[in-house]
Amino acid sequence: MAGPVKTEAVVLRSMRYGEADRILHLYTANRGRVSAIAKGVRRARSRFGGRLEPFFRLHIEMHEGRGELLTVTGAQTIDGYARLRADARALDAAARACDAVGRLFETSEPHPGVFNLLCRQLALLDAHAGGPPRSAMGWAAALAFRLKLLLAAGLAPQLGACASCGERDHLVGFSGAAGGVVCAACEAGSFPLDQDAYRFMTEALGRALNEAPEASQPALGQVERAISATLEHHAHLRLMPASGPLG
């Protein structure tokens, strides 16, 4: 419906358009993922300043017309997450988190829980920015975030019993096609999932985002593969890896 739109939003991506405008991809609390144009934002005297850059959390006002793009008419900063912008690791992790949300939840259907989850992830990255490198923990936190995204999307892997036959013991592998862990009798076509990886997945889904469990790097590699296999088979989607070369 055409008219004014007011909502909280996180800027997922910002692209130059024309001589002075920007196209924004936003994830909003009330409207899901939307795209909008910010006219004149690149001019030196723009009233928006730098607040329409990626990862800003905003109170945003837009006008919805007949086209696909909404028009930004006002924006106030809730949080700019300034510390993460000075930390290459945190900046990279924020970009991957926003990309995952934007691609997995790409419609205008509202998911307030996903919006809040993204805001918490950005806040955690901001809080830990500038600290000592802890690549395994950074990877663990990113994977815990993605597991919670799967849960919100209705794609959480079955972990309590074999996804093929229901057996609760001898769970030795993971099958993206089956949608979860599989037992020794059903492991054909699966890949190994050791106890450390299994424990990580179950604990990460049950804990708060800021309490991501620790795990060995080989185990985290198995978790990443399990998430990727689930998305490929059930959402026909491939995301960039949860953690980049910077950790």
Summing up helix and strand content along with how strands pair, one would put the structural category as alpha+beta
Strands across the major sheet, in which order? 1-2-3-5-4
- Considering the protein shown, what is the CATH homologous superfamily of the largest domain? Nucleic acid-binding proteins
Report on the biggest sheet: 5 strands, mixed, barrel
> What is the chain-wise order of helices and strands?
EEEEEHHHEEEHH
Number of strands: 8
General shape: elongated
Which range best describes the helical content: under 10%, 10-25%, 25-40%, 40-55%, 55-70% or over 70%? 25-40%
Q: Judging by the overall fold, what is the CATH architecture of the largest domain? A: Beta Barrel
Predict the CATH topology of the largest domain. OB fold (Dihydrolipoamide Acetyltransferase, E2P)
- Count of discrete alpha- or pi-helical segments spanning 4 or more residues: 5
The separation of the N and C termini measures 43 Å
- The total domain count is 2
pLDDT averaged residue by residue: 92
**How big is the Rg?**
20 Å
